[in-house]
Amino acid sequence: MPPDPAASREGPRAKALAVGDRARELVGMTSASRERLLALDVFRGATVAGMLLVNNPGSWAAIYPPLAHATWHGWTPTDLIFPFFLFIVGVTTHLSVEARRARGDDEGAILRQLLTRGALIILFGWLLAAFPFWPLTRITELRIPGVLPRIGLAYMGAALLTRRGSLRRQLLTLVALLYGYWFAMTLLPVPGEGGFGVNLLDDPTRSLAAWLDRRLLEGHLWKASRTWDPEGVLSTVPAIGTVMLGVFAGRWLGSGRSLAERLNGLFAAGAIAMMLGLMWNWSFPINKALWTSSYVLFAAGVASVSLATIMWITEVQRLTRWTGFFVTYGLNPMVAFLGSGLMAKLIYSLWKIEVEGQPVAVQGVIYRGLFASWMAPRTASLAFAVCVVLVWYAVLRLLQRRGIVFKV
């Protein structure tokens, strides 16, 4: 009897699924749900790898446009990385909570875990910002907002808002968050500016969000501006909405519907969200730094379509050989983020060696010696960033082979 072609394709697929076993433990899902979890591992891993790629160029003065953030309004692929991560946090949060409930875990224990996990993420963010912990004035000038603090706050906020109540109530809560933020940012007067927010959105320093950042966190803001913060107080509210949209996607993925129906639903919902976000952009511009409501819808729409595409490739087309790299990154995202952040601080500014009598950062020595000396500036900068991604892949692959998964 000739071999079954479908069976012959199962080898790579089974291998790729097995690689994600430790990730499945994180969300407590059964083997019947493997197609969702492979796609989630790949999506999360691609997001984390992309984050390292854009955060570690050889030179910030030589970056290809898609790898740089939009100057203010608008978006680039780089501007989608952060909301993609928040979206996948929402998806896995729902799947994890539902798995614990299915096991009969106490609601109080679930709530304590949610709050503890969010608090730890915030703490890790502050520790990273404070590194190397000296001099003491560095602690007093610690940047309180940041990527990890926003993830922790948005995670806790979305988890609390979606723990109970009907889907209709949760959707109305999301609408209130997005419309409330739109109202506050455009129709309320900004103290000290003599005008309404809608007329001040083009100036990063004059929006209501910037005013509130200075009012509450003066001296603890992003040092590149000191007058506003891209992960500030008010803009964290719509970021909670990004995680909530991920929770809704997780709810859909965790339903008992067929794979085809779930894929069609994700594609359709993503397309509609992108369209609504682009329409809202006419009156409330897509803007990552302000995390505008239009940005929330648009980015979540792209995330839904991207996740559905990965599921279609891996489950319908059965193409999984390419997933291993991203699954490795998806298993230990916190290790990758914290480790690369610490490494960047060390080699970009703290660790210096003497070159021709002058102290030069190690990163600069490596970049100029191995890349910039023979490549065009942008190509050299990208090559350095790619090498950082590969170095951390090697570290994460070693952890994976030893069965080490760092869980917050």
Tell me what you see in this structure.
The chain has 408 residues and is an all-alpha fold. Helix content is 66%, strand content 3%. The chain contains 16 helices and 4 strands. Helix 4 crosses helix 12. The longest helix has 25 residues. The N terminus is likely disordered.
Supply the key terms.
408 residues, mainly alpha, two-stranded antiparallel sheet, 16 helices, 66% helix, disordered N terminus
Summarize the structure.
By secondary structure, the protein is mainly α. It is built from 16 helices and 4 strands. Strand 1 and strand 2 form a beta hairpin.
Outline the biggest β-sheet. 2 strands, antiparallel
Give the low-pLDDT segments: 1-33
Number of helices: 16
Number of domains: 1
Helix content: 55-70%
- Name the shape in a single word: globular
- The SSE string, one letter per element, is HHHHHHHHEEHHHHHHEEHH
Question: Structural class, from helix and strand content?
Answer: mainly alpha
Could you tell me the strand content as a percent range?
under 5%
Beginning-to-end CA distance, first to last residue: 51 Å
* Strands, total number: 4
Summed over residues and divided by their number, the pLDDT gives a mean of 88
Radius of gyration from the alpha-carbon trace, in angstroms:
22 Å
Strand ordering within the main sheet: 1-2
Blueprint (SSEs and pairs):
Elements: H1 5-19, H2 21-27, H3 34-55, H4 81-102, H5 107-130, H6 136-140, H7 147-162, H8 167-187, E1 189-190, E2 195-196, H9 208-217, H10 236-253, H11 259-280, H12 293-316, H13 324-331, H14 333-350, E3 352-355, E4 358-361, H15 362-372, H16 377-401
Antiparallel strand pairs: 1-2, 3-4
Helix pairs in contact: 3-4, 3-12, 3-13, 3-14, 3-16, 4-7, 4-10, 4-12, 5-7, 7-10, 8-10, 10-12, 11-12, 13-16
